[in-house]
Specification:
Layout (H helix, E strand, L loop, with lengths): L1 H14 L14 H24 L10 H24 L6 H4 L3 H10 L3 H7 L6
Helix pairs in contact: 1-2, 1-6, 2-3
Length: 126
């Protein structure tokens, strides 16, 4: 179970390092954008590590609380990446600038098999 969780956490963080969520993420340049990406990713990984540490190594399933924490953490990560992207479209590559939320979600879910990993633990992005 920890292996699935670790793969999900790491797969999400390393495969999508250019997007954002629902706070004020407006930045002035690409360097600041990249810095925000790292901040969002680090927050996600830190929360994920807390969840991983709470899992009994002998468990075959997540508890309801662990599942909720994982789903909430992943949803927050997605929201933050989308918001960052959305608020800084002028700094993005042309092929990314025009993505709407649903298109971005499709891209996010297809990276490193994120969708199947989320389904394994019962999470669905909105």
């Amino acid at each position: 179970m920890k292996k699935i969780m670790a793969t999900l956490l790491l797969g999400c963080s390393v495969s999508i390092s250019s997007f954002a969520g629902q706070n004020s993420f407006k930045v002035a340049n690409v360097t600041a954008l990249n810095q925000k990406v790292m901040e969002i990713t680090n927050q996600y990984l830190q929360r994920g590590n807390v969840i991983l540490k709470s899992i009994d190594p002998h468990a075959t399933n997540l508890t309801a609380q662990q599942q909720q924490q994982l789903c909430t953490n992943t949803q927050s990560y997605f929201n933050n990446f989308y918001d960052l992207m959305n608020q800084n479209r002028n700094l993005l590559k042309p092929e990314i600038k025009t993505l709407n939320r649903d298109q971005f979600k499709g891209l996010f879910l297809n990276q490193a098999g994120v969708q199947s990993k989320l389904q394994q633990v019962g999470c669905h992005l909105v």
